[in-house]
Amino acid sequence: MAVPASIRFMEAQLLAYKRVWKGSLFTSFISPTLYLLAMGVGLGSLVDGGGNSPAFGELSYLQWLAPGLVAATAMQTSAGEASFPVMAGIKWRKTYQVALNSPLSPVNLVSGLLAWVVIRLLTVTVVFAGIASLFGAFTLSAAFMTILAALLTGIAFAALILAFTSRLEDDTGLSMLFRFGIVPLFLFSGTFFPISQLPAAVRPIAYGTPLWHGVELARSWAIDVPTTFPVWVHITVLAGFTVLGLLLARWGFHKRLIT
């Protein structure tokens, strides 16, 4: 049976990663542990010591924080994979132009890159959720649901950032993306505190971000926290961002590499 061309391109990303995988050990294993120790256990002891906050109910801060951190980590992983490596393939190393001399098309490149991001998301979120369950943040069965919510979040970001990167002429836009996009989203999309604590004028901005919907979904599925909107709304929003990003990414890759 013939292997789809997009899978072949995904395999190329995997082969390249096999040469540098040791460099990702810190972010895959040590970083989740440090996050949970510093924020969930360290800061959490101060939060819990002050009495249960109405925002957290009877949950400890660690239990409330961990699902959101898994979703936020998925966002960061997708941003890392869909930004500078893609810019390198398009502009600096020009490996994508070389790939198009084979039967691959721009659509195959986008699909293969997204498939590769899914693999990276699985490895990162499984490790993070597993470590969080060892800390007692949630059960192993809940960890599976947290991973699923994080995957939906990461895929949405990957599609959007692939589209964004495909239209850039240099990496200045990527630096701006991380400085004014990814970092603020990480801090102010409900990962560390409920967005109800944000000024009323700012909350609608958070409602429109993929990360907030992913965090809401992760908490709902992992620790049964009620969501602001019905679960199907969060899933629909994430799916909508994914479809929009894929359509724009395919158009962007074709325009950049073909026309």
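That was protein one. Protein two is written in the same sequence-then-structure order:
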Amino acid sequence: MIESCFGMTASPSPPAPSGLSFPKQRQRPQMVCACYAFLAAVLALLWQASTVHFNYRGNWTALFCTGDRQNVPPQLAANTYLFMLSQGYDGQFYRYVAHDPLLRKGLRQFIDAPSLRYRRILVPGLAFLMAGGQSQFIDAAYLAVILLFVFLGSYWLSRYAAFHGRHPAWGIGFIFVPATLISINRLTVDVALVALCAGFAWYAKKGSPARLCLVLALAPLVRETGLLLVAAAGLDALWNRRFRQAVLFAAMSLPALLWTGYVLAHSPAPAPAVALYVFPRWAFHSPVIGIVWKLFVPEQYQYGPALDRMIQAVDALALMGVLLALGLVIWSLRRWRFNQEAWAALLFAGLTAAIGSPHFWKDVNGYARPVSPVLLLVGLPVFSGAPLWVLAPIVLVDLRIGILLGSQVYGVLRGIFLGSS
């Protein structure tokens, strides 16, 4: 049942559920899971290569979604693919962070909210380190970091599935977590956080405190909502009266806090902006009302009456998928025997419910990324016996993302079958 994940921690040797099960194999489970994770990363790369070749004339910087209405750093402008009449998307700013991670080259003036973007240093920082600080290699390294987290998320999900007797191929499903799809196509940093959520669930289940601490230290460096994983681990420790462990978990937030201090010192912001470090403007304004409002006041399009109604219907399905995820978390409260995964699901659900601005729920690319952790966490019980419909929230949100990807898919298929690029 659903509570099997949101209840007590599973026993070391759970019975294998019905369905796609993990067969007895001679290979080490780690290697089997790593192979499926590698396959997931290869599939992501193949899609990126296809859309870049057929839709963007082979220019890989198109994946950063740089708009022509934004100023581009002169040292990067020559090879940057620009989307006409567009403000671009978040990936363009994280690219600039990767080229100037310590705020020493003046690239922060080209970033919309430098204090915010620089706080999310993990993916850009790893890209800079992987490239050895060499500017000509940083864009490729950034792409490699995104694929690395696709691999890690798939690997941890595969290990989690195998632990519960499921086939490790389930790990490939990590690609379909909304934040992963968006990060593959727009090079946003959110794939790293959902990957670390999968790692959090696996190491909590396995009972590996050292590796769990590493995950907790990294998550807030992806984006500030990663602190909820730290809080979940700490709350579970307090709930079970493991006070020393709670202090240890709380200490994992220190790297992010120290880095935030560095960013504030080198990228000063006015007082209201500093306040947004803790309380974003879209949070705690009118909890839950925003998403419900958007259900009854749909976005207006100009594609024609029939197509507009179809897209509005899929918009509504995606929003109902988020509400269903919240409902699944609330339903799990019937049994107050929480583990670390359950605390994490509850905290991320609380954050999602706190998003009160209807504007936040306007674009699926915008809201699907921060709510993906709760979508992933409410889907995990499928591995321990819950029915497949607990994956419905992910499927409903993916339907809307799929429509947005329709033009790219069309371009790739046209290129393959008609030989055009």
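The longest strand covers residues 66-67. Keep this in mind for the problem set.
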